[in-house]
TrEMBL record:
SUPFAM superfamilies documented for this protein: Thioesterase/thiol ester dehydrase-isomerase
Any one GO molecular function term: lyase activity
Pfam families on file: FabA (PF07977)
Record keywords: Lyase
Species of provenance: Ereboglobus luteus
Protein known as: Beta-hydroxyacyl-ACP dehydratase
Length: 157
């Protein structure tokens, strides 16, 4: 994953046939809870969207997207994946320390260089966040240059 602690909001993640699932436990020790809000720690909605975006990045890296014609053999370069937009976001529940966030993303459409997912976060059976569209941009890894042997000075081939 390109993201690392303290800015990684996934404790575990997996991919399946229809997308990716993940979990994040709000411990109360997160740096951002010190000021959001004083004496009333609440997980910022923007960071919950970040967590969904991170799960979508994981899904892309793990090959959830269908291969585009002509790019079947090209791996996606994790350094080229960036969050570009989100639409239709609704927050249904305040999330606090002790809550276990269960995240899910499913691909909606892919048109190079964009991949759009739908995402949701639940706490138990309760809806916490719904995002109708989370769009990421991505690129393919460049093939490694071929190494060719050059003859030593005075050597012939």
């Amino acid at each position: 994953m390109p993201m690392q602690p303290p800015f990684l909001f996934l404790n575990e993640a997996s991919v399946g046939n229809s997308g990716a699932q993940g979990k994040y436990q709000i411990t109360g020790e997160e740096f951002f809870l010190q000021g959001h809000f004083k004496d009333n720690p609440v997980m910022p909605a923007s960071l919950m969207l970040e967590a969904l975006g991170q799960l979508a990045v994981f899904a892309i890296i793990e090959g959830v997207l269908p291969a585009e014609p002509g790019n079947e053999d090209k791996p996606i370069d994790p350094k080229t994946i960036y969050f570009t937009s989100c639409d239709g976001v609704r927050c249904h529940r305040v999330c606090k320390p002790g809550d276990l966030l269960t995240l899910s993303v499913k691909p909606k459409r892919v048109h190079m260089p964009l991949a759009t997912f739908e995402g949701s976060i639940r706490v138990g059976q309760e809806k916490a966040v719904i995002a109708e569209e989370i769009t990421l941009t991505f690129g393919y890894a460049e093939p490694a240059p071929e190494v060719t042997e050059t003859p030593e000075v005075g050597e012939t081939k």
